[in-house]
Amino acid sequence: MRMKTFRAPTQTVAYEMIKAELGEDAVILSNKSVSENGSKCCEIVAAIDESAPDITAAPTRDDVLDEALQASNGWQQEWGQIKGQIMALLRPQMNLEQLSPRQRLAMEYLEREEVGGEVLFNVFCSLREDGKRSILSVLDTMATTKPLGGKHWQRKVHAFAGPHGSGKTSSLIRVALQEKENNPTANICLVSADGSQGKGRLILKHYAELSGMAHREFITHEDVAALRREAGRFDMVLIDLPGISAQSHLNEWLDVHGLLDWQELAVHLVLNPYFCSRQFEIFMERYKSPKVASVIWTKLDEACTFGAILNTACASGLPISALSYGSGLKNSITPAEKEMIWRMLFMRQLPGSDN
Ligand SMILES: Nc1nc2c(ncn2[C@@H]2O[C@H](COP(=O)(O)OP(=O)(O)OP(=O)(O)O)[C@@H](O)[C@H]2O)c(=O)[nH]1
Ligand SMILES: [Mg+2]
């Protein structure tokens, strides 16, 4: 890790210097006001992971080729191909004629929803053993829910992670508003950890002020330490994490920012259901961390198939904690229940709608 101290008349100028010299992935280690030649200025210590590619030097054609050949996702692509071939071999074994007409129809629905080959094969094997078995009893064993909010979670500190624009800030505000509505005396704290993105930070601050909730920010290690010290006095702490860039991993981010060993913290992965299966594999790799405790599905109203929800539940083993189905902040999220997921898969019925 390379560390450097930056001094500038204002914080904004200091951030610009850091961005220009160390790039977007620089981590802020400390931020304070100091005196220089009798006038006040801002001193920021920033660091960058040495193993991260040097964004200032333009790569040569050979660099690009070397990088491509050494790319760590090579084996992943290979494994993806092998899996595809195994599925192609298994496919003829999956003779739907061996199922009862009702089971067959349910399997066809799952295929329509783009449920993955491995998941379908597992469902098929369970159903083939018993012609009377309902598909829902099989699916019930494949996905779990743990509704966000209320008494289902012992941990009080919840962070929202996920790709850029997946709906992290909106989900956080929705959960906070719902919690406040259900329990008006609850002492809730909203935390912006998204220092680089002014918009999300301002929205969070605005809703915290409007709804009588506390608002904190963290950029430096000292901010995180202060939050950890005072977290105990809140009933619920909700942290808005920034999107992770394509080269980074959530676990490293949590580690660098001093959050990985925080027992009270549960991270919720905010995802949209309309990415291709390869993209989900990449997300699961990038956001893999022992702190990740559930998946929140957002933008369900924009999706045309819902198989990704079941595929991800099977691949990750993570429970589904909340479902969001509208761009507004009110009445657009619900704590997840299995029944809602089966209704989406078989009836394309969104939570909160009767049709
Ligand atoms: N249709 C629909 N839009 C949603 C939903 N959830 C969030 N959005 C919209 O998606 C956009 C991005 O949401 P944000 O909450 O800002 O996403 P984010 O993950 O915090 O984004 P960054 O902080 O920029 O990474 C906003 O315009 C939201 O209104 C949803 O369930 N349905
Ligand atoms: Mg945001």
UniProtKB/TrEMBL annotation:
<keyword id="KW-0282">Flagellum</keyword>
<keyword id="KW-0966">Cell projection</keyword>
<dbReference type="GO" id="GO:0005525">
    <property type="term" value="F:GTP binding"/>
</dbReference>
<keyword id="KW-0342">GTP-binding</keyword>
<protein>
    <submittedName>
        <fullName>Flagellar biosynthesis protein FlhF</fullName>
    </submittedName>
</protein>
<feature type="domain" description="SRP54-type proteins GTP-binding">
    <location>
        <begin position="155"/>
        <end position="347"/>
    </location>
</feature>
<dbReference type="InterPro" id="IPR027417">
    <property type="entry name" value="P-loop_NTPase"/>
</dbReference>
<keyword id="KW-0969">Cilium</keyword>
<keyword id="KW-0547">Nucleotide-binding</keyword>
<dbReference type="GO" id="GO:0006614">
    <property type="term" value="P:SRP-dependent cotranslational protein targeting to membrane"/>
</dbReference>
<dbReference type="Pfam" id="PF00448">
    <property type="entry name" value="SRP54"/>
</dbReference>
<dbReference type="InterPro" id="IPR000897">
    <property type="entry name" value="SRP54_GTPase_dom"/>
</dbReference>
